[in-house]
Design goal:
Layout lengths: L1 E7 L9 H5 L5 E4 L2 E4 L20 E7 L5 H5 L26 E6 L2 H4 L3 H6 L3 E5 L7 H13 L5 E7 L5 H13 L6 E6 L8
Parallel strand pairs: 5-6, 5-7, 7-8
Antiparallel strand pairs: 1-4, 2-3
Helix pairs in contact: 5-6
Length: 199
């Protein structure tokens, strides 16, 4: 059906994230430094986000789009694929880890970054830990090493807050990779205390 939805001019977008805060429907998100439409069915076409963009990168356009689903926007399903998720409790040989992309997230990140489930958890397995409060650092390194070598995870994304204590999570991942016989891609994502992804 034809309806009015938001359009983003990527050439003008600076990735500041102001539009994300201006959209109360959860339609927009900053990914790889640019604003993106991540949930078009929730775009009501009213353009409340347009005035929040300092670069003028947002406009409305009428085009073919899925019907607007207000109810679906209020009931966004969890993307958790397994339980438990606390690294201390997860068996490193659990079947839900086999040949999966793994997210290792600091405990705080999912509470601070509002689009955590949508951006980081779809089709991924997840474990969480806190390098400051947890006392099982060596155990965590052993478990991650086993996940890399024995359970054959495909990749590891470490999501941490921009605060100094979170650096320990990256250290744990690097030590596990150094101890492992297999080498896999490891990526770092920093979440700011303002709720924005910094890199």
């Amino acid at each position: 059906m034809k309806r009015t939805v938001i359009k983003i001019d990527e050439s003008r977008c600076t990735g500041c994230g102001a539009c994300v805060k201006g959209c109360h429907e959860g339609v927009l998100q900053v990914i790889d430094g640019k604003a993106r439409v991540v949930n078009e069915t929730c775009c009501d076409g009213l353009g409340a986000c347009i005035g929040s963009c300092p670069a003028g990168a947002l406009t409305l356009e009428e085009r073919e789009a899925e019907p607007y689903k207000e109810q679906s926007c209020c009931n966004i399903p969890s993307q958790v694929r397994q339980f438990p998720i606390q690294l201390r409790l997860v068996n490193p040989n659990a079947p839900f880890l086999k040949n999966m992309d793994l997210v290792l997230a600091a405990d705080c990140t999912a509470f601070v970054y509002s689009h955590f489930h949508h951006q980081f958890m779809q089709n991924n397995s997840i474990v969480i830990a806190c390098p400051k409060l947890d006392s099982s650092i060596e155990l965590y390194i052993e478990k991650l090493t086993a996940m890399i070598d024995d359970t054959a995870i495909n990749s590891l994304t470490v999501i941490m807050m921009e605060v100094p204590c979170c650096g320990g999570l990256w250290h744990i991942a690097q030590r596990a990779q150094a101890n492992a016989e297999r080498k896999i891609p490891i990526r770092k994502v920093i979440v700011g205390v303002d709720g924005e992804v910094k890199g």
